[in-house]
Amino acid sequence: MDEEMQSNTSLPESSSDATAQPQAEAVTDSKSTSTTSSKSSLLSPSSYTNWVRSTQRKLIIAATQGQRPPETLVSSLDEALNAKRNALVLSSREWNVYLAASIWRASSSSSSSSSSSSSSSSLLSDVDEVRAIIELHGEATRSTNGSALDLSAFVTYTDLVLSLHYAFEEVKSRPTNFWQDDEDSQWTVEGEEDLLQDWTGLKDGPKFLNLRHKATKYGITVGYSASTLPSILTRSQAKAAAVEAAWDSLLGESNVRALIREANSRAAGELNWSHLLWDSYRAFELHHLKRAKTADRIESVKQLFLARLKVPHRTHEATAQAFSSFLSSYLPPDAYESTMASLQRAYGAAKATWSSVEIFEDKVRGASPALGLNVDEQASWQAWQAYLRAAASRRHADVDLVSALFERCLSYLGLPESLATVQEGHAPNSQGVAAVKAARQKLPKSQRQDAELAERQALRQRRAQREGVWFDYLAFLTSRGGNKVSATQIIEVCDRATRTLPGAGLLWATYLRQLAHHQRSKSHIDEVFSRAFDGGQCSEEDKEKARDEPEDIKGSMVELFAGRIDAERQLLALDLATQQGLELSEALIQLPKDPNAFTEIFAMIDWALQLPAGERSAASLDKGLRLHRLASSWAEAAGPEMAQLADSIWENALTQQPTNAEVWLQSALYHIRIGNLSKARSLFRQGTGRGKISDTTQLLEAWARFEAMYGSGDDVLRAEERARRHKEKQWEQWAQYAQAQQEQYLNYTSAAAGSSGGAMDVDGGTGEAADESGTFATGKRKASNSVAAEPSASSSSSMAIDTAAGHTLPNPINGAESSKKGKGGDASQPTRDRENSSILVSSLPHDASMADLQRLFAECGAIREISDPVAIPGTNTAAGVVEFMDRSSIPAARTKDKKRLRGEEITVSLGWECTLYVTNFPASHDDAAIRSLFGNYGAVYDVRWPSKRFDSSRRFCYVQFTNPAAAKEAQGALHQHQLNGAEGALQVHLSDPARRKQRTDAHANEREVFALGIPRNCSREEVLTFFQSLGGTVEGLRLPESSRSNRLKGVAFVDYRTELEARQAVAELNERLLRGKAVKVQMADAEHQSSHGGRANSAGAGGGGGGESGGFASRAVKVRNLPLEAQEPLVQQLFERLAGGSSSVKKVEWTPSSSSSSAPSAIVELADTATAGKVVLLGESGQAIYIHPTDAARRQHVLSVQPLERGAAAAVIRSPSPGSASGSTSAAAPTAFVPRRTGGGRGRGARGRGGLGFVPPRSAAGEQKQPPAGSNATSSSGMDVDEGSSGSGERKGQDAFRAMLAGGGAAK
Which of 110, 542, 782, 796 could be stapled to 765 by a disulfide with Cβ–Cβ 3.0 to 4.6 Å? Predict the structure, then answer.
């Protein structure tokens, strides 16, 4: 026997002892009255996995040696799988092997009794064996992958029942299966798979069918090949053997109908694929109707259709057509109209429900394989997460549908493997096992350890995802279920949740609380708690996470104990309420004062805290002190005589966690509450004086408040002095950090300036070309009559499908660009080709929606994104954009041209054929002027403007008409047309993708990605390899380092050669693991660049220099109340009008909307302080009004314009304040826009002094360094206004300031 087998198996080598359990512990079969041992214990998932795999390995070895499988090993396999399904849950593969083995055993038994050598020729004559097989298949539908709605299990179950039924009834030509007669003809059979032989070595067992879905290309394993199932008694044979009644009660028409109907009823919530089950049910009923056409059968089939049409599902129209054919064939003509009329309301409601979720269903259908096992986890998780949130948050959510949605999600996500062995995904003794093991052994020790760490972290991430789904499911049932959800159902879901994730303390706690809430017995609660505690999975997960991530302990054991304590409180409160006639809420308040209840609860908490470390203890890992505070609060609530019991609680906490500042703080607060002030003062002094405590800021603040109330003057000074020294230390660290950041940035900019080549003109002109490295300097735009080098319509962040009025199609799968690799792993994500893959659909009905476009073009190909149709001014029509995944879908989409949608003939055109690239217009021309100019030649669908964030000289736009004819007419009329105020002739070109060139100034925000979560111990080569893994060309990589440790800060800026490579990196590398840590990858923006030391801003980045009036904060304003559809360029145009011209606005820092509920905002930097003040005053008077150009209602959005708070200004470098998370910012409270007198160390050339009014020095880039959080350093949020030449020290009021603005000069 090989070494691997000996190391993994827990079973004895002798066949006579092959049924012994691993770890000398028996697993009790809850469904059997007999046990194999007097001791029962819940094993870990890895123990069960090893038990099953070792038995499978022995069977495979026996088969390869030509031996007949020992009966003891077959029994052991059955026992292992049976034990695991009773204690935990089985995966889809484990269920399939288990079910096939049960059929093999039954057929082998019959074969042996009939002296037959082949199961294929055996005859199952025992009706009880067949009944047991059917019941086992039925049980699989209730717990596969922990879900009660795994459709693959349902299909296998119903196919088996129908196959046995047709064999019993001797049907020569049985109705076709869904894969033979699907409405869409989407399934093909690609062969058979012998899972039983592959995983156990047992031969001549039933084989599963390998199916392929034509549209999604996913392969699945489901259902049995009829030729491999054992034979059973036919009706005539059973009648001859005088057992017809028994067989008829199992496989007769009546019982089979009941089984199939019940399965269809439970699977109806699978909106995408439930028609596969229902089609077999319908075929069954029509088959029997043809055999005996009676009124009862006709009515039964009619009710079957009526019930189905009232349930939302994907194939509503096909079902309705089938029903219509049925009525025409079997009912008299006069009954047709009345039947259809009576159905209309319910049918319409079901269709409306489907329409409301169709977009989400398309997403999960595309991200998850239909009925499959090989799920693309990341895509599935994101799609399901968005769907679940939307469905569960609806005001009038359908409880049954949402519950089914949670079950479907759990089924599709599957079980996280135990990772007990690296071979778990491969059959035992397969080549895959050897390959994985050999590859692992070749790695150096450090790399092998890193790989194991990455596996553990990935497992924890998958567990956390599934734990979140289970918890949200239970929260929905308990909070929104109402009378539709019974206590039995909630407890059953809790039981499955904990058997699926036995290490999730939160789920165990929820289970215990629900048992108490629904008044289950104390013995039941104790039994559940014992399963969780004795199993040890919560403790093991805590220890593993403490080893890998010591700073991030979730505390499964803490959750478990908290749940058990809450359950006990509930039970005791119910007893007290019954005894004293109180309400439950009143009993809970009185509970601590009841001696018996107090003793029970406090003893339980104290027991949890006193468990020794390493023995499933929660105390040492409870960083938040949840149990300690609960014990203390419980003792204090019982009265003064009991409060002293908390002394030992806090003394032990100080011993267990001496470096946890929270322990010292809570201990001191406890002694304050009980009046022991001297002890509290001592704890404050000791805690703040210990050098190993990471952060004593809160402890120092609490000490200062304590001394201010209870201490003498000396005590107050002592506390303040220690707090001051702490702040000084923080300030020194802060200054060192800021200086290192500044030096690193200056080094980077110097290196970048040394390697930059000549400038390329944005709009053509005579700018120099880029050098070979692809680096560009900022070039000055020149007006030119020559043909401009046209930027790509897709290179700008403003593209038709992104910036059309209204919202884009909801995309829960990691953004619109998240197209994942194929299952084979060899297909890379297709390049996004917006111009050639987008169509413009015009002449739509005025009330058309995204759902209309989705239904209209769904059959043409995979859709990436749909824009909400926009009403076209002056017409009663609308237009929208549909972008496909690739250009191969365009020919099919063009066939929809001239089709009718609700009576309107629509027009379908290529997006770029309707789009014009326009440049060399006057600087005064804004969106309204362009629309007015081009609107003379046809209806304008959209005007897209470039961002001026990185180059304020950019002046071009894209004008998109609703049809190509209007675009061509406008081009012929306006190209080379001279406009008043323009330096050259107007340039108008068709936006042809074939002649586009990459916009040279887009590299700053279109080809740069920002990554967060880079492991700090990575080398530059590892990071570079990570970002080059997709084949893209990395032209620049910046890895900011910490000045104190010389280690990476955990962020990276990566420049790719093209925008498409950058966007592919975002789509493919986001959340991918690097050294076991998930890396967050997104497109870089000004926020990232300034916050983390990224690329410099080219224009006015620092502010406050170069002779400009005032610092950045004094000439910048914060803009809020923007509508969701607001666009950055249009906001800039609005403020240019308010401020008096394009030169008055330097730039707009844009924060786009992150969701449908969060509005965008902006920081607008004006030319000087006076202009900023003018804009604020105009905003206060309600003159800052934003009207979106495509809003047919012309709704006015009055914007909120406020001066930028001190400290919130954007600068080249942003650094976190001490005591806050890296990268976070803390905005100061807004203050009134009032001019203040300069001076006091703030005048020109003066240097601020320390103490009150101290202004931190500016960096070389002009940024103000912020003082440490909580320090006494102050700064005004008002705007700096220079005193002018008078040098007068008198304070000027608001009236003087308004007069200055009105007169355009300084106030006198």
Answer: 782
